[in-house]
Specification:
CATH class: Alpha Beta
Organism: Halomonas qaidamensis
EC number: 3.5.4.2
Pfam families: A_deaminase
Family: Belongs to the metallo-dependent hydrolases superfamily. Adenosine and AMP deaminases family. Adenine deaminase type 2 subfamily.
Number of domains: 1
Low-confidence stretches: none
CATH architecture: Alpha-Beta Barrel
Helix content: 40-55%
Number of strands: 8
Largest sheet: 8 strands, parallel
Strand order of the largest sheet: 1-2-3-4-5-6-7-8
Function: Catalyzes the hydrolytic deamination of adenine to hypoxanthine. Plays an important role in the purine salvage pathway and in nitrogen catabolism.
Number of helices: 16
CATH superfamily: Metal-dependent hydrolases
Distance between the termini: 21 Å
Structural class: alpha/beta
Shape: globular
Bound molecules: 6-chloro-9H-purine, zinc ion
Order of helices and strands: HEHHHHEHHEHEHEHEHEHHEHHH
Strand content: 5-15%
Oligomer: single chain
């Protein structure tokens, strides 16, 4: 099974590129940029990656990305992950990135975009890896700020496939971002949102009704509402479920008790992704291997999940055909 999963061409719809920053690269960039880290060694950094909830993780996630300063840093971050992912059989990645987390630190959007887009071009030209771009907005910051960032990003609208909504979910309901998502729709941008990770099933319904999203990131808590499950089943809205992330952030106590089998049994359009691979114990292959071991899935389940991901990936029809 492990050999099959390595060979299987895998597609990942939910990956925060800032969450792919491995401690080794963090140390290299800190040195290059003359930044002091709160850890003495790579080992010490890794030991700190023990979380009790989403907020505990987000604190280290925002601290970690502080080493990203120049266009080259963003390029190195992304190409490092792309190379690693390709080495484990990943053929397409839809990548979230968080402009506000960088703008807040004084890093202009141009720097972020130039580095990430250069890495995407190189992956597509030389690695046989296609990349979708999701400009994500931080739900624990004001909607007015998000709207300003979206307008200032006008030169880049043509390079992005969708907008997303991430960061601290509790007490930051989708409805708070109605104006942002309305504007994105006017512009012609596809919309996705994290919902039902730590937040309630109601937030999934809200994201569908008020934000008009085409994809729900996580969505595992839909199982708390039969009505929401039925809507997701009927519409075949894709869920980007992140198994190792859910265990790390205590959304689920043990992978053996993960709701994935129930989601599949209900007939939902499920996919699996790594979310923040540097923080949650591995990339897309590690997530596949862990599910095989904990849930006892056979090859057909993994083929189905990857077929779902290929159908929903932000890519051209020609590339989609190649991936099928
Ligand atoms: C995230 Cl796991 C998760 N949830 C919400 N926002 C995020 N940003 C990066 N990882
Ligand atoms: Zn996420």
């Amino acid at each position: 099974m492990h050999e099959f999963l390595l060979q299987l061409p895998k597609v990942e719809l939910h990956l925060h590129i800032e969450g792919s920053l491995e401690p080794e690269l963090m140390f290299e960039l800190a040195k290059r940029n003359g930044i002091e880290l709160p850890y003495a060694t790579v080992k010490e950094a890794k030991a700190a990656y023990e979380f009790s909830d989403l907020q505990g993780f987000l604190n280290l996630y925002y601290q970690g990305m502080n080493v990203l300063r120049t266009e080259q840093d963003f390029y190195d971050l992304a190409i490092d992950y792309f190379q690693r992912a390709r080495g484990e059989g990943v053929v397409h990645i839809d990548m979230h990135f968080d402009p506000q987390a960088h703008l807040q630190r004084g890093i202009p959007l141009e720097v972020v975009m130039a580095g990430l887009l250069r890495a995407k071009e190189e992956a597509e030209a030389s690695l046989d890896l296609s990349v979708g771009m999701i400009m994500a907005f931080l739900r624990d910051r004001p909607v007015e700020e998000a709207l300003r960032v979206l307008e200032n990003a006008a030169p880049y609208w043509k390079f992005i496939d969708a907008i997303g909504l991430d960061s601290a979910e509790r007490d930051n309901p989708p409805a708070k971002f109605q104006a942002l998502f309305k504007r994105a729709k006017e512009i012609g941008l596809v919309r996705v949102a994290h919902a039902g990770e730590e937040g309630p099933a109601d937030y999934i319904a809200e994201a569908l009704d008020i934000l008009d999203v085409q994809r729900i990131d996580h969505g595992v808590r839909c199982l708390e509402s039969d009505i929401v499950v039925e809507r997701l089943r009927e519409s075949q809205i894709v869920l980007t479920v992140c198994p190792l992330s859910n265990v790390s952030l205590k959304v689920v106590d043990d992978l053996r008790n993960h709701p994935l089998p129930q989601l599949l049994k209900k007939g939902l359009k499920v996919t699996i992704s790594s979310d923040d691979p540097a923080y949650f114990g591995g990339g897309l292959l590690a997530n596949h291997l862990a599910c095989a071991d904990a849930l006892g899935w056979d090859a057909d389940v993994f083929r189905l999940l990857n077929r779902n991901a290929i159908e929903e990936a932000f890519t051209s029809d020609q590339r989609r055909k190649e991936l099928m």
